[in-house]
Amino acid sequence: MQWNVNETENWEELRSFVDTALLPIYLYRGSEEVSEHVLRMNYLLNVAAAIEQKLKGRVLLYPVHYHFAEEQPAQQTPPGFVHNVLLHFRSDRVRVAELGTEGSVLTLPVGEEDLESSLRFEVTVDVLYKEIIRHWQQRSTQ
């Protein structure tokens, strides 16, 4: 489920099935060109949307959250989810707030190589969504 009006009309009916928040996080660095930021942010959003489509029905995809790299606070997770998945670029160090984290937190780094390669994109999505499934399976056995 994506964070938009069309998808959230039936939120109350679906809420009991959606136990995972998918949170794409982008760190903005002033040293990069705007075109590079556009490419990277678009890629991150597309990866997040593709993961959400593969896991549709159990995942709520939040809008991208960005911080200025120099002022990055600890990322808090939304309340009410058993699982929180933070999606970010590998070079970005994302910190999770210790307080306010109700459920498990999985941080998934996305590689920054070949952002324009469709094959690389498909492989990235495949690896990351399987990692989420593995995380769910591990948590259900605990």
Brief account:
By secondary structure, the protein is an alpha/beta fold.
How are the SSEs placed, and which strands pair?
Blueprint: H1 5-8, H2 11-14, E1 20-28, H3 34-54, E2 59-61, E3 65-68, E4 83-89, E5 104-110, H4 118-140
Parallel strand pairs: 1-2, 1-3, 1-4, 4-5
Top keywords for this entry?
142 residues, globular, 5-stranded parallel β-sheet, alpha/beta
Explained architecture:
By secondary structure, the chain is α/β, with parallel strands linked by helices. 37% of the residues lie in helices and 21% in strands. The chain has 4 helices and 5 strands; from the N terminus they run H-H-E-H-E-E-E-E-H. The protein has helices at residues 5-8, 11-14, 34-54, 118-140; strands at residues 20-28, 59-61, 65-68, 83-89, 104-110. Strands 1, 2, 3, 4 and 5 form a 5-stranded parallel sheet that branches. Helix 3 (34-54) links the parallel strand 1 (20-28) and strand 2. The longest helix is centred in the last third of the chain and has 23 residues, at 118-140.
Find the count of extended strands (DSSP E, 2+ residues). 5
Evaluate the radius of gyration.
15 Å
Our count of helices gives 4
Low-confidence stretches: none
Average pLDDT metric: 84
Instruction: Give the biggest beta sheet.
Output: 5 strands, parallel
Percent of residues in beta strands? 15-25%
Helical fraction: 25-40%
The computed structural class is: alpha/beta
Order of helices and strands: HHEHEEEEH
Q: What is the 3D form?
A: globular
N- and C-termini, Cα separation: 26 Å
